[in-house]
Amino acid sequence: MFVVGNTLNHLYIQPRSYKTSFKWMAKNSSSSDVAIEKWKRDGVYIDKRGKLRTFHHKKLSRKRCGSLRGQGWKYGSGFVDGVFPVLSPIAQQILDFLQQEVDADRVWGSLDNLSPSHSTWDDLINVAVQLRLNKKWDPIVLLCEWILQRSSFQLDVMCFNLLIDAYGQKSLYKKVESTYLELLEARCIPTEDTYALLVKAYCTAGLKQKAEAVFAEMRKYGLSPSATVYNAYIDGLMKGGNSQKAIEVFQRMKRDGCQLNTETYTLMINLYGKASKSYMALKLFDEMRSQKCKPNICTYTALVNAFAREGLCEKAEEIFEQLQEAGHEPDVYAYNALMEAYSRAGYPYGAAEVFSLMQHMGCEPDRASFNIMVDAYGRAGLYEDAESVFEEMKKLGITPTMKSHMLLLSAYSRVGNIAKCENIVNQIQESGLQPDTFVLNSMLNLYGKLGQFENMEKVLVAMEKGPYEADISTYNILINVYGRAGYFNRMEELFQSLPAKNLTPDVVTWTSRLGAYSRKKLYQRCLEIFEEMIDAGCYPDGGTAKVLLSACSSEDQIEQVTTVIRTMHKDMKTVLPI
């Protein structure tokens, strides 16, 4: 435990050349006295642009309840007013202790020894925000619960907000609700951050109706939902995989006259980009600028990513140039997005040029940068170059993740090198990582392509018996492989087994099954399966239409299929409406 006999002024930094002979005593976890050098309270801090600025520390320190009370942390932006959590020595001790100790009684017992001063309050909030940056939700809960239930500090909405956020991240929506009620009982006034965090917590728990109820709660108190609350809702829906609802909320936001901000547009550009709707992302970007809403570097990067996903490297490069013309210095995320564009377009050497450029400009590549290069070379069949990048990453001390190994596995899988692929799977296990479903699906696909059905079945048995859960993609691979090989009985056996495994056939499953009969020109059987597909509520895509047309052996059959497809598309609702 730590016992503090005095406290430090926490947040602000001194010039490196400053020295002082003043020392004070604090007790560490072993109860031995340790001398810690006290910082002089210089009037300097780092603003959000990384510049040193000055302040009048006496004026700040005399604020009632501490300099950060009620304003130091804001949802979605960390510290406001450009002040970042620079931890004092005592705050660092508290942080280290909370990250190591899990026993609530020991944590609270240690926190009880802190003096209830303004600087202690600021230290605690700095620690809470740093824990949030580290995504350490349990220590935040222990700290904030201690502040609210046991400390002598005045109850503060910021502390409630941090606690709501932590419980929301842990999907403990009941705890979120009880914390919100405690906030009201304590006569604290909820802020827009409070409501935003409530909405996000409900989205994380998959409770859309409760998220909607938050908007009604705000109106009950005469509050109009702000962009912060709407953005939290859109973000939560996107992370929950509900893009359609997110678009509906965005449209409602416009109808309600809520002022859209940069974050709103950036979220929606991301949404359309991930849905491979780069034209919609660009439309929103143009709308944003016409509304005098200034894009930030995240907005530009989101748009570069949108074009990158579709391999539109020229458009991606154009937006990248606009980013620079707007006065933004490209960061690693922007460079990675541009590299991804060249990779997806099949230009590995273009990606390599961007990789070299970012280093020349003083921007250090991260793990994602190396992964993109492994993927770029792998997609182009340059497996030796892919492995060279993989090894270079390890030499630089960047530990390859499961994704890194998967990309290298895919590179060798494309050229049918089974021995190397099996070696990579062994490397994954030796590095302490557990092969997941995606890894085993890749091996299934490789064995299937090479006609090694016995090995494919062995992998399937291992997945069904072991900890690796077979998903619909697993069976899509099997159905496609057996269908292409003409093993209809085994294909149908696998398809019919899906309901018992609680798996629902998707459009790929149905199309793969259709493809098997289409290759044999079994037109009537294809129509029967197509009807089954529609009755099951699965809507065909372009691939399904091509398979059906390839089953036709006469002009009449082609006309019949074309009529059916046109009729269905006419009745189809747009998946991503404008």
Using brief descriptors, characterize the structure shown:
578 residues, mainly alpha, two-stranded antiparallel sheet, 29 helices, 6 strands, 63% helix, disordered N terminus, disordered C terminus, Mito_RNA-Proc/Resp, PROP1-like PPR domain-containing protein, PPR_rpt, PROP1-like_PPR_dom, repeat
Describe it for me?
The protein is mainly alpha-helical. Helix content is 63%, strand content 3%. It is built from 29 helices and six strands. The strands form three sheets. It has a two-stranded antiparallel sheet. The protein has a two-stranded antiparallel ribbon with strand order 3-4. Strand 1 and strand 2 form a beta hairpin. The chain is globular and about 85 Å long. It starts with 22 loop residues before the first strand and ends in a 7-residue tail after the last helix. The N terminus and C terminus are likely disordered. Keywords: Repeat. It comes from Gossypium mustelinum. Belongs to the PPR family. P subfamily. This is PROP1-like PPR domain-containing protein.
